[in-house]
């Protein structure tokens, strides 16, 4: 038996719950929301597809129903509204997280907590500080979505499966994120060498336009919101990927946000670099060798997050 509780039944939370059932990740999925009626409707709608997928219980619940959870996914919080600053959003969602934490952690102290709500790096930091849980049990979704956007875009440009694209986004889940291009490989070739090695060289459109690709990755979320009002499909799949890794014995490499303790010269902030995730949570950080320029970008991203943290009350 495996149990996942999802806190927040909005578009992201409900889609995560649906994908968890469709992919057979858990045998029991509990959907909790301050709007219990909404959680009830979403859970019923999802569960009624059970005959077509792996058997699973999907039900609404309250905080106390998180008892025995292997994983708790936190998606609750306000979305940024027009005129709201990033700091305003941070403080509002920190206050929500504080309430959720005091109600959940005593009930499910053994669970792995996956923080999805934004600003995710700030909330992961606050949760790490106030929950009292071992850091191994705390995973911020961080730049896993940014990384997915990067990999899918490079796969399109290089006419290859995304599974053969080894590229990741480091830093905050936000404007100061960056791609360590020195580490990017396509099918065992560095990205700048792959075109000449490929049978598809005449179809590949690549001239080392790093900045263009990074701009696409950073603007993708805003473009989706502009067109359809919200983003939730890709982020839900990325969270399911994290959950599957937590239930697996083999370590899975992914960019998630965790507390830094001097790695890359950075301390006391949650930020995304490459980690191994396995049964029970974070196995550890993969310390890739960055170029001096990449290391400096990571430090700048960390300082921007610290500037926000310094202004938050928690």
Spatial extent as radius of gyration: 19 Å
Q: How far is it from the N-terminal to the C-terminal residue, by CA?
A: 36 Å
Average per-residue pLDDT, rounded, comes to: 94
Helical percent range?
40-55%
Order of the strands making up the biggest sheet: 3-2-1-4-5-6
The biggest beta sheet, please? 6 strands, parallel
| 3D shape | globular
Strand residues, percent: 15-25%
Structure classification = alpha/beta
Q: What's the tally of helices? A: 9
Q: Name the poorly predicted regions.
A: none
What is the element string, with H for helices and E for strands?
EHEHEEHEHEHEEEHHHEEEH
**Number of DSSP strand runs:** 12
Commentary on this structure:
This protein is of the alpha/beta class and 314 residues long. The protein is built from 9 helices and 12 strands. It has helices at 11-22, 36-47, 86-104, 120-131, 144-158, 191-197, 210-228, 233-246, 292-309, and strands at residues 3-7, 28-32, 57-61, 71-74, 112-115, 138-140, 165-166, 185-186, 189-190, 252-261, 267-278, 281-285. Strands 3-2-1-4-5-6 form a 6-stranded parallel sheet, sandwiched between helices. A 3-stranded antiparallel sheet has the order 7-8-9. The protein has a 3-stranded antiparallel sheet with strand order 10-11-12. Strand 5, helix 4 (120-131) and strand 6 (138-140) form a beta-alpha-beta unit. Helix 1 (11-22) runs parallel beside helix 2. The mean pLDDT is 94.
